[in-house]
Amino acid sequence: MSLEKQINESFLNVPLRPETMLIFTARTAILESVKDAAKSFRGKVLDVGCGFQPYRHIIESNPHVYEYIGMDLENSELYAISEPDLKWNGRRIALEDESVDCVMATEFLEHYSEPEKVLAEILRVMKSDGRFFATVPFIWNLHEIPHDEYRFTPYSLTRHLANAGFKDVEVKALGGWNLSLAQMIGLWISFSKMRNLTRRILRVVLFPVYYSLIKTDRKPVEFDGVENSMFSGLSVTATK
User: Fold this and answer.
1) Nearest to 125, CA basis, from 105, 144, 154
2) What angle do CA 55, 233, 69 make, to 5 degrees?
3) Which domain holds residue 84?
């Protein structure tokens, strides 16, 4: 499968069917959030932990953006087939102070044991009034072991950003109760120990429930610890 086709089927146009129950909820919610955030991007945009750079075209299609820079680790085994525009060591970004207008980091911050340090480095390369956007998972299994450090709440995410020097922090849910349950079903079917035949049967039997949960989900507009106390993941925006 070509990289372009892989990006399309795994990130941009994930089909809703039993075989995609693992990734559909997370990838479509993140995509929706990226599209919304990208509307306010401008100038030079740095994509931290860009991976396959699945959202590059979305960012570059914004007429107010004149440059996209995808940045990831050197010699990354996970993304070896997609060469980033800029490589880094996970600590120091090889850019001058106040050299980019916007920074995005999808599913990135949970992999850092000291998130405020990497946030401070991101802040360093951002221009005054620059815009930051990120997503983080909440309902998700351990991944990229041993580099899986956190599941953030709205409060911890806000505190880390504020401590790093960001202002105007706004946190939103990527999905509510129903999407969270659908996501957990997809994870359970995909990774829980069971016979392959059982797994195939469960995908078919539970798909109508999974489908219904997705279609009836309501994102919490606030976090109250009661009715609005569950979310599948979070997006956050902030400024310098």
Assistant:
1) 105
2) 25
3) 3-239
Among 177, 160, 178, CA closest to 169: 160
Query: Pick from 239, 70, 75, 49: which is nearest to 135 by CA?
Result: 49
Closest CA to 187 of 150, 139, 235: 139
88 vs 53, 95, 103, CA distance in Å?
Answer: 16, 10, 15
- Cα Rg of the chain (Å, integer): 18
pLDDT of residue 231: 98
Record the pTM: 0.95
Q: Tens digit of pLDDT for each residue in 124-173?
A: 999 999 999 999 999 999 998 999 999 999 999 999 999 999 999 999 99
We report the CATH number of the domain holding residue 49 as: 3.40.50.150
- Tokens 């309902």 -> residue: 139
**How many folded domains does the chain comprise?**
1
Q: Alpha helices of the chain — where are they, by DSSP H?
A: 3-7, 24-38, 56-60, 115-125, 154-164, 177-191, 196-215
